[in-house]
Amino acid sequence: MSRIPEPIPTPDGPTYEGRLLDRADEEVVDQGVVFDIGTLLSRRGVLGLAGLGLGAVVLAACAPAASGGASSTPTPTPTSTPDAAAVVTGEIPDETAGPYPGDGSNGPDVLEDSGIVRRDIRSSIDGAATADGVPITIVFQVVDLANGGVPFAGVAVYAWHCTAQGEYSLYSSGLEDVTYLRGVQVADADGRVSFTSIFPGCYAGRWPHIHFEVFPDAASITDAANAIATSQLALPEAACSAVYAQSAYAGSAQNLAQVTLAGDNVFGDDAGASQLATLSGDATSGYTATLVVGVDTTTAPAAGGAPGGGDGGPGGGGQPPSS
């Protein structure tokens, strides 16, 4: 293994490969994730990554810090932290927001509600209802591909998903006035957002998933047309099988047995390769699901919005059961 060259002193401070060190008193290997990303990107040609388009960016995925309001509901503690390294190989695939986005594109609009910016999404915004299920912490780390893959600080991420029974707040029968399992977080300096939620169930016709939209900032979330990326996170099969063995998820195991990642009408293009979350934890103590999301603002979003009706249409997929 070759030795890393020593930084070169300059009037403005020590540099490495022509770039000022972020931490002048520390070694090159201790400069942090943003500096490491720049180093990797500057070596793309040497590493033979040019053929991959935007190339591969390796990010350190540390445990996220809360950036939303406090909640009276305790936050579950997974048995282990997320994998220390996550890889993004390009822009996150554009997907439909599906028939149940609640972003105003087909009727219900939770993004207009005061209190939607929150970390814990297990309860309705007014606290009147709470979703039950296996705890899960959902972590998105957003990277800005238009600027070399640096963390996309300040973007707002809206996440939503179904209940343990496969129902969606705001849409399913009896849940029209319920707002749980929906929330917005603003990315920190490392491009990370985190949500405390419950593991979603599996309804007929779809692989277990979590929807999300990325907006330029929190002020933009009131108009779904402002989204710069719309996609879905896929959950690994082993964890789904473990969770769906519990009585609270009745029917999910049977539905899971009838679908595959490769055959799913959203993840089937690449069997979820770029949307499959990294999981840690277990079905007893809870899970942490982490996904690195590459967003390229130089390309026009090709998805988003929601089709009318209840079956989701092509790419929407699946009809969750009514109460």
TrEMBL record:
This is Intradiol ring-cleavage dioxygenase. Residues 305-323 have a biased composition (Gly residues). Residues 298-323 are annotated as: Disordered. PANTHER family: INTRADIOL RING-CLEAVAGE DIOXYGENASES DOMAIN-CONTAINING PROTEIN-RELATED (PTHR34315:SF1), PTHR34315. It comes from the Bacteria. Keywords: Dioxygenase, Oxidoreductase. Residues 125-205 form the Intradiol ring-cleavage dioxygenases domain. PROSITE patterns: TAT (PS51318). GO terms for molecular function: dioxygenase activity.
